[in-house]
Amino acid sequence: MVELLKNAVLIGIGMSAMAKEKIEELAARISGDGRFSEEEGQKVINELLEQIKNSRKNMDELIIRSINEALNRLDIPTRSEYNALEERFNELQKFLAVDREFKNDSKKIDI
Predict the structure, then answer these.
(1) Which residue has the higher pLDDT, 96 or 3?
(2) Where do the domains of the chain lie?
(3) For position 27, what pLDDT does the model report?
(4) In the predicted model, is pLDDT for residue 89 greater than 80?
(5) What are the backbone dihedrals phi and psi of residue 43, each rounded to the nearest 5 degrees, phi first?
(6) What radius of gyration do the chain's Cα atoms show?
(7) For residue range 23-35, what is the model confidence (pLDDT) as tens digits?
(8) Most-buried pick from 33, 43, 74, 108 (CB within 10 A)?
(9) How far apart are CA 105 and CA 98, in angstroms?
(10) Residues 6+ apart with CB under 8 A from 85
(11) Residue 9 clears pLDDT 80, i.e. is over it
């Protein structure tokens, strides 16, 4: 499961990097053909790069949502749930230590 998600992320990153290169290559060809001025070509590149950035953000959100859904299905606690449980455990340990001390002290008094 983790390997599958890792591969999905790597594929997304690779596609983004390839897309940027292809966009720059396309813009160079278009401006070289005289279809666009260099300024117009740069504007097109910037718009396409912004779309890639938004797509990457959406993909990241989708991956995070998928991971959280998978963790919920597997009934694995989140970091915050784990930390809360650890805190409760530590408090219980302190309580038991105080309780043991109290019992030990009360045994000394009864003797």
Answers:
(1) 96
(2) 2-76, 79-111
(3) 66
(4) yes
(5) -65, -45
(6) 29
(7) 677 667 666 666 6
(8) 43
(9) 10
(10) 77
(11) no
